[in-house]
Amino acid sequence: MRKLLVTGGAGFIGSNFIHYLLNQYDDVDIINLDKLTYAGNLANLKDVERHPHYQFVKGDICDKKLVDELMPEVQIVVNFAAESHVDRSIGSPDDFIKTDVFGAFVLLETARKNRIEKFIQISTDEVYGSIQDGSFTENDPLMPSSPYSASKAGADRLAFSYYVTYKLPVIVTRCSNNFGPYQYPEKLIPLFVTNAIEDKKLPIYGDGMNVRDWIFVDDHCRAIDFLMDNGEVGETYNIGAGNEKTNLFITDLILKHLEKSDELKTFVPDRLGHDRRYSVDCTKIRKLGWQPKYDFEDAIIETVLWYKRNADWWKQIKSGEYLEYYKQQYQTA
Ligand code: NAD
Ligand code: TYD
To answer: Which of 108, 213, 221, 225 is 20 to 30 Å from 328 by CA-CA measure?
Structure first.
């Protein structure tokens, strides 16, 4: 039996990862440590809440006492917990520094003292910053340009330092933009799908020509699982599926699949410091034997259908704190 501490498991990727592991294996036990911030949602895990191999603990990764209690119970740590939305980091960066940097430090320090067998730090391709041509490899310098990506870069290199200094068996992953079920509807794809379903405007930043490399969340989960077994400690791995698309392309695709009018497209002032293009070279993980499984268009169709069928899930979210946030952003609510 392998026992994992999954942090941030009530969020988008973490909850997909927990579903993935429990579907895939009979011999994993999972403790999900999550603070349940605005982005954490236990509805994402309703179907597994009574699973014999799953336990939820509400708490903060910055809470040393709590992390000290949980760490001796597990062999593997997968750290998803983070403040994750670039726009929020521009408005108020404090929690990004606290959770993404200090929280990662608390986990690393406690893992070191407990001789954890593997520590997977979920970083992001955004730590490299923007690239005009070509793709970043794992050896390229980090040039993060938002408070979000800078805080993630801090944790990314802090994790590496724990390998170099203390020989903590750390693996760092840098994945590109994910999409799929249970993504909080403030990120591009779930925001635009749910707005379009409700015939609300789709706020396209700047000229809509910024490029992101999209990966279906299940492929990301498979890559993390693959690296837990096959990744080399002390190494960093880019993860991506080679689907570079402009935001306008994504917008048109969503409108097409929902059969909605072009008139919902609304150009709004650009995000501050908006990275033009992200692109990662994934030769390293591909050489190890991992490759994405999902076709991009099929996965988009599946995702659009999921949001159509699960309107209760996102309508519940699109109220309260969420509406306050959007009123401040665009006065559109
Ligand atoms: P998310 O915002 O949906 O979920 C984050 C989760 O972390 C939430 O459940 C939240 O409650 C929890 N959390 C926040 N602060 C916490 C704290 N102090 N203690 C415990 N739990 C806390 O984020 P996501 O999109 O699922 O991203 C997960 C991870 O993957 C993040 O580390 C992010 O940087 C990284 N990542 C995301 C993407 C993407 O496209 N979404 C791509 C690459 C990497
Ligand atoms: P986002 O989903 O926030 O991910 P990230 O900024 O971490 O890549 O945004 C993806 C792209 O979509 C990014 O170029 C910003 C753009 N975008 C919009 O044009 N409008 C929006 O309302 C949002 C949320 C994002």
So the answer is: 213
Residue 84's contacts (CB-CB under 8 Å, 6 or more residues apart) are 11, 39, 148
Please choose, from the candidates 333, 20, 330, 45, the residue with its C-alpha nearest in 3D space to the C-alpha of residue 182.
45
**15 Cα nearest atom in ligand 1:** 26
User: Residues with Cβ within 6 A of ligand 2?
Assistant: 86, 177, 187-188, 191, 203-205, 210, 212, 247, 271
Q: Which amino acid is at 323?
A: L
Same-domain status, 123 and 199 = no
Which tens digits make up the pLDDT trace of 208-249? 999 999 999 999 999 999 999 999 999 999 999 999 999 999
pLDDT in tens, 96-148: 999 999 999 999 999 999 999 999 999 999 999 999 999 999 999 999 999 99
Cα gap 203→196, rounded to integer Å: 11
Look up the CATH number of the domain holding residue 131.
3.40.50.720
Residue 29 in domain: yes
Are residue 134 and residue 248 in the same domain, yes or no?
A: no
Instruction: Give catalytic residues, as residue numbers.
Output: 125-126, 148
Tokens read off for 8: 């941030």
Same-domain pairing of 167 and 316: no
Structural domain for 151, as ranges: 2-178+215-239
Q: Quick one: how far is CA 207 from the chain centroid?
A: 25
Q: Can you read off the two tokens belonging to residue 290?
A: 């991992």
| Whether 269 and 190 share a structural domain | yes
Number of domains composing the chain: 2
45 and 82 part of one domain: yes
Is 288 within a domain? no
Question: In this structure, is residue 285 part of a structural domain?
Answer: no
Tokens of 305: 């259908």
What's the rounded Cα separation, in Å, for the pair 194 and 183? 11
- Nearest one of 82, 79, 105, 78 to 93, comparing CA atoms: 82
Nearest to residue 25, comparing CAs of 42, 3, 6? 3
Q: What is the pTM of this model?
A: 0.98
